[in-house]
Amino acid sequence: MQLWASVKSWIGGFCNEVLKVGPIPRHIAVIMDGNRRFAKKKSLERSEGHLKGFDKLLETLEWCQELGVTEVTVYAFSIENFSRSQEEVDGLMELARQKFTHFMQERDMIERNGLCIRVIGNVSLLPKDLQDVISQVVHMTKHHNRTFLNVCFAYTSRDEICCAMRELAQGVQMGHIKESDISETLLSQCLYTNKSPDPDLILRTSGEVRLSDFLLWQSTFSVLSFIKVLWPEFTDWDLRAAVVYYQKNYDAIQAARRTKELELAEVQRQSDYACVQKEMAQDTACPQERLQQYELHRQERTRNFVSIIDTKREKFFDDIYQNLPVSLCTQSSKKDLQSL
User: Fold this and answer.
1) In the chain, where are the structural domains located?
2) What is the DSSP letter of 197?
3) CA max distance for the chain
4) Confidence at residue 10, expressed as pLDDT on a 0 to 100 scale
5) pLDDT above 50 (res 331)
6) Above 50 in pLDDT, residue 340?
7) Contacts of 307 (CB under 8 A, 6+ apart)
8) Other Cβ atoms within 10 Å of 200 Cβ, number
């Protein structure tokens, strides 16, 4: 058995090197579906199925790292999941407490890999004690920048887009941006995921063929791979097969992405030109100079506006962290935060 395991490991490593000859997705997103069906299939409690699912996530992160994937986003808990039975929701919240606490106990591993853990979603909907634990993990890892794990918790894409739209409306109302500044690009920069590139590859296990309100805006140019295996039974070979599928579609996706980028740039140029023309009703200044000046001012406005949003979101977690009981947060760590 030990020999066979060594052979399998060697073959897997060899296949990884072959895959690396082609394009490797920088960012993989995963809909981890099938935990409950796995539990039913194995005559286990639902909570045990979710626990097996978390163990599979840790394995999958290792496989992604071996392939050279630098960012992984997982759909851990949808806002819609709050409609499940109270017993199951409570079990999932308790599992989350345990596993986020587990991350804090793996500080050496996290620092060694430069892992930044972000929690994406409407975290205010979660129990206060879970928010406390999450804030500690976010604080502990926020300065790392080599690899990234984004955990979508209390998340739906529709809620995310609505939140971004509210930010834009408030930005106009408060004078941070102009109504004419609003664009697809700026809306993207207002999403929870604005620090991440859009996912190159989205995986969904269990055989279901839908995105279930996950990264709807960000998935326009993602390769979608629907895998007929329950999440706890997902293997490294399933991952490699998905990467092969991504590589087969890579050229077409990149061409479509470049075309879209050119279209957005042209739409923005036309918008800027229209705004300058409106301002120049009684002005004789050179249109080209005015256009360049307007573009620079717009870029500065939108950059400052996005910075305000980022600061507000970081402050949400920092405020929770600052108010933690001493028993949950060491004084030295709090001093580190206060010195930032």
Assistant:
1) 24-327
2) P
3) 84
4) 73
5) no
6) no
7) none
8) 23
